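Service request form, structural biology core

Requester: graduate student, group of Dr. S.
Request type: structure prediction, single chain
Budget code: on file
Notes: please return the result as structure tokens.

Sequence provided:
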Amino acid sequence: MTDTATDTGLTEEAAADFRQKCVDFMEQHGKRSGAPTYEESQDFLAAAAEAGLAGLPIAKEFGGGGLTLAHEKIWREVKANYSFMEAEFIISHGMCMPMLAEYGTKEQKERFLPDNISGKTLWCQMFSEPGAGSDVASLQTKAELDGDEWVLNGQKVWTTLAHKSDYGLVVARTDPDQVKHAGISMFIVDMKGPGMEIRPIHQIDGGNHFNEVFFSDARIPKDWLVGDLNAGWKLATAMLMYERVAIGAAGAGKINQPTYKMLLSAAKENGSIENPIIRDQLMQIYSMETAKALVAMRTRAEMKAGKTPGPGGSLGKLFSSVIAWKMRSIFLEMAGPSSIAWEGDGEAQGSERQRILLNSFQSGIAGGTDEIQRNIIGDRVLGLPREPSVDRGVPFRELKVGTQAG
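Core staff response, request fulfilled:
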């Protein structure tokens, strides 16, 4: 093999050696089928960190691999042949880790990134509130400085894995006299600290991934502010971009059609594969997932080291939701009531397919609704005129939002 540079920035020999290292690691620590447990994900990340395969583009001094995005691309391609081992850490690693790496202070990186990268700690993000869902900038949770500590009061909702998380990133109102998109700041929060109350939201499939989080005079150190004071909307936007890439490009590394394969297996089992309409629908899913994989790979390729992804991430996120809607329609037609229900009680009774279908309803909400994604694509990708805004230039405390509406 020649020692010439390839388009990945690595020599062919170096790329081949690194790929083999990734394959050897996955053969030992990965799974070929089935979703990993939370404990299996933790063990996987700990082993990956030990092998220098976790947080690849992040500097070694902060617990990363100290390698390049070319190495990261190869790592993703190899992992795509196995089960998604970091599923429970998609927010912790897909959103919180890059935010800390890009916007955190040196002290914050030294303290928090190594344990985040290795899976020793789990992180969540807290944006949505009962009165601030799609319009997150209307949030009312407030943070007030008291000496060397910030005091947080308010409520967040739909916080994924808050009940398991050690730390979280939260946006809170720090200056209500500014317009709603200003006067917001981002903070690191100890999820197990005093003044924190977490209430699980029970889901239709028996799980409780989502939670309500209440802050009652919750105190955090002054230096746990992320980025500049009152610049939280910029950081929140950046974090949402990371989230949409994480969701839309989950497991991206090669062209793959997991939903098609799941539906094809079900169609063969119940005989509906002989139905020409079902076969046509399956090929639609196949084509859509192939296109989504290509978009995800392009999005990953366009991300520059240390830079926040752009609005193009909304394309993959929206397409994921469109595929989920299509999948539900096909599965319901193909399997009828058995596609969403099972006999027996308890979380262990439901099949993986049924849980995928039931959980798919969140795809059009989590990370920003489909309507929000279309607005972003129209405004920031296609350059279409923005929707009219009636609260531009108005101080937040004068707006009729949330509990201020009364």
